[in-house]
Each structure stands twice: as C-alpha cells, then as structure tokens.
Amino acid sequence: MGTPGLLLLALALLVARDAASRKCHLQGLWRNELGFNMIILALNTAGTFSGSYHTAVAAINKQILVSPLQGVQQHPSAKRHPTFSFTVQWQFSDSTTAFVGQCFVDHRGKETLETVWLLREEVLSHKDTWKATRVGTSIFTRIK
C-alpha cells in the first residue's frame, strides 16, 4: 500500500476511534419513530433525571397532555453506552408506562435511545388483568 493508501487508512481509523469514544448523553430533546417527543433534563450526580413526554396518540377520547417522567441512568459518568430506565405518569389516562433502554452513538456520532416499554392501564377487576399490560419497543433519536 502506498503513502496515499496509508494516509487514508490512518484517517479512517482515527475517525472510527473518535466516534467510538464519544459518550452518549441522555439530556436533551428526543423523538421516536411515531413522532412522540420527550425532553430529558440534566442528570444529577446520582444519575437520576426528570423530564416530560408528549405522545401524539391515545387509546381514549381525552385531550392529550404533556406527562411527567422520572428516571435513572446506570453509572452516569463511567459508560459510553449507558443503560437507563424511566416511568411516565400519563396525565390524561389511568395508566403508567415503564421504559428500559440503552443509549448508543453510531460511527457518525448519531445518538439513539433503544427502549422496551410496558404500559399498564387500570382495570376494574382482577379477572381483566390479562388485558391491562401492553409491551412494545421505541427508538428515539436526538433532535437537540
């Protein structure tokens, strides 16, 4: 391989190493594949955070309201691709959603939050428990 080839290889390795060393940060404005927006405020030193979630869809005929979220990130200063969890207390229905996920940075520096969620809605009797929990996935990308 000639000098231009070696320079190109060295540059590619440097860019890949730089992207791989970037840490993923939860704080900011995020949007998922359905167009739902989420704001995560600054994490404290213990890794806890708060924010708000605005969904565009509801299974009920009520006005959709911005809903508060509370969460925690595992080892906030030590990990490049941290795991986290948060709950959303819906302000327009009798349900709560718990999210767990991991934050990733790709080779171009694009941050994503890959999550799995459980939504539990209130049911009137124990015999209706079977239909009270929904499971899904969401991938959020950083807007700001």
Overall 3D shape: elongated
Question: Which strand order do you get reading across the main beta sheet?
Answer: 1-2-3-4-5-6-7-8
Given helix and strand content, the structural type is: mainly beta
State which percent range the strand residues make up.
35-45%
Give the oligomeric state of the chains in this entry, treating copies of one chain as homo and distinct chains as hetero.
single chain
The proportion of residues forming helix, as a percent range, comes to 10-25%
Summarize the biggest pleated sheet. Answer: 8 strands, antiparallel, barrel
Q: Compute the separation of the termini in Å.
A: 42 Å
The helix tally amounts to 1
Mean pLDDT over the residues: 84
Order of secondary-structure elements:
HEEEEEEEE
Q: What is the CA-atom radius of gyration, in angstroms?
A: 19 Å
Low-confidence stretches: 7-17
**Total beta-strand segments:** 8
Question: Overview of this structure, please?
Answer:
The protein has 144 residues and is mainly beta. The protein is 13% helix and 43% strand. The chain contains one helix and eight strands. It has one helix spanning 3-21, and strands at residues 28-32, 37-40, 48-54, 67-73, 83-89, 95-105, 111-121, 133-142. The longest helix is centred in the first third of the chain and has 19 residues, at 3-21. The chain starts with a helix and ends with a strand.
